[in-house]
Amino acid sequence: MKVAWSEVCSPKQEGGLGLRSIAEANKVCVLKLIWRILSARRSLWVELVKKYLIRRGSFWLVKENTTCGSWIWKKILKYRDTAKSFYRVEVRNGEASSFGFDRWSEMGCLYDRLGARGCIDLGSPMTATVGEVMAGARRRKYRVAILNQVENEIVKQKLIRSNETDVALWNGKHDHYRKEFHTKETWLQIRTAKLLMENYNGIWFKHSTPKYSLITWLVQKNRVATGDKLIKWNPQVTPNCILCQHTLETWDHLFFMCPYSFQVWTKLAKGILHASFTANWTETLKLIHDNRLSKTKCFIVGYIFQNAIHSL
């Protein structure tokens, strides 16, 4: 039985196999390249991009249909809107912060909120830095409330202005902005989380055998070729349990309602579990990480449980 690739590429606690989606990994890598450009990281690649692709303009103003640059450059430009939600600037002298496009205040990107007309009304070009705007003659009064709000933000920045270089920040875990790019935290924010898989610890535990854990995972998802599924594909197939020949074979019958499989599981586990013994699938998975049992017993129960499933 097949499992959807989107489901496979999920963390184990969400019912997947812990593989990373190539699309998600690629998106994070592109965002990291954008971070390197915006944070003024000293590297040959960043210097080449700024000199030959951005030139004297702003990274945010480069057109997507530009004929300059390689395919990866065009890919980077397409992810700028996503990068905006992660990137912000802590203004010091304002010389490295874009007035219209960087998020340097709580108002966010001014161009997105005001448009080209709003910036013209402010008397500041889109390409200006925050430092250039602060150095201009202020303060003005406007009839539009939002323009007065921008003026208030400029005045606030002037009061705390220093001679230090602006600090680039990236949104991380718990909406906390940091001076570094964290790959895992960025990935967790761009992906869509799924519901937690119940008792996944009973399938993926330390020192388990991968092929045993995999078949247990497939059974948990009801993706094994039991009789009830085979008859849907081919009506000529006998759907009865191959072990007891009495009942329609389903995964919950096979593990361990079937008299034969129940006897196998009883012989293997009852001498270890004693009063805690159960043939119920969900209860057995809980036992594998039950605090009432020792670590050794939990491991033995989990291992023989998966071995029995694989063998049956």
Structure characteristics:
3 strands, mainly alpha, three-stranded antiparallel sheet, 2 domains, 312 residues, 48% helix
Major sheet: arrangement of strands = 1-2-3
Envelope shape? elongated
> How would you sum up the major sheet?
3 strands, antiparallel
Rg over CA atoms, rounded to whole Å, is 30 Å
Give helix and strand order, one letter per element, not per position: HHHHHEHHHEEHHHHHHH
- Average pLDDT metric: 89
Enumerate the spans where pLDDT stays under 50 for 5 or more consecutive residues: none
| CA distance, first residue to last residue | 17 Å
Number of helical segments with 4 or more residues? 15
Query: How many structural domains are formed by the residues?
Result: 2
Number of strands: 3
Secondary-structure-derived class: mainly alpha
What is the share of helical residues?
Answer: 40-55%
Q: Quick gist of this model?
A:
The protein is mainly alpha-helical and 312 residues long. The protein has 2 domains: 5-190, no CATH class; 200-311, no CATH class.
Report on the architecture of this protein:
There is one protein chain. The protein has 312 residues and is mainly alpha-helical. The chain has two domains: 5-190, no CATH class; 200-311, no CATH class. The chain is built from 15 helices and three strands. The protein has helices at 5-8, 22-38, 44-54, 71-78, 80-84, 110-122, 130-135, 145-159, 183-190, 210-220, 227-233, 251-257, 259-273, 281-287, 295-311, and strands spanning 87-90, 167-171, 177-178. It has a three-stranded antiparallel β-sheet, with no helix packed on it. Helix 2 crosses helix 9 (183-190), helix 12 (251-257) packs across helix 13 (259-273) and helix 13 (259-273) packs antiparallel against helix 15 (295-311). The radius of gyration is 30 Å and the shape is elongated. The two termini are 17 Å apart. The mean pLDDT is 89.
